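Methods — Computational structure assignment.
A single polypeptide chain was analysed. Its primary sequence is given first, followed by the predicted tertiary structure written as structure tokens.
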Amino acid sequence: MTDDWAERLRRKRAEKDDFFAEHQQSPIPPEDRDAFDGLDYFDPDGTYRVEATVSRHEEPDPVEMETTEGRTVRYLHLATLSFELDGEAYELAGYRQAADESRTLFVPFRDKTTGQQTYDGGRYMELEATDDLEDGEALTLDFNLAYSPFCAYSDTFDCPLPPETNWLDVAIEAGERTP
């Protein structure tokens, strides 16, 4: 990890804190924004920037994800991301909603910090794929960018919950902490 990387991460976090404190679309209720002094984060840690190998699903399986409000939303399981952390092998599923034409992969997950150091509904990552994903392609999973969904800050939001396939049996001490 270079100092430049950590500094860019800190700047991105400061921008997010400003958005949460001031923007009209902030998930922080307006009456709580004056007291808001920023999100809580784990320190930047290059250990949690890992290379994942993509296994693309040519015929993506539909997956029903439960939400914090008890509804279900349908996603397509586009790819499986295989990676190692501390010498152990793990996998996460990457999703996209059918109508979403972006190249962004939605990766909701839970880990051993969930409900203790991080939001009890899990956290999210979004990965930008530059082109159509290819089998064997390498993508960087940067858990330092893991964030809590808006429903962690306000009951007015309804957020997808990570399916069991994305429950990691390891503590990911990176990204946002419990709000």
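Note: Strands lie at 49-66, 72-85, 88-96, 104-109, 123-128, 138-142.
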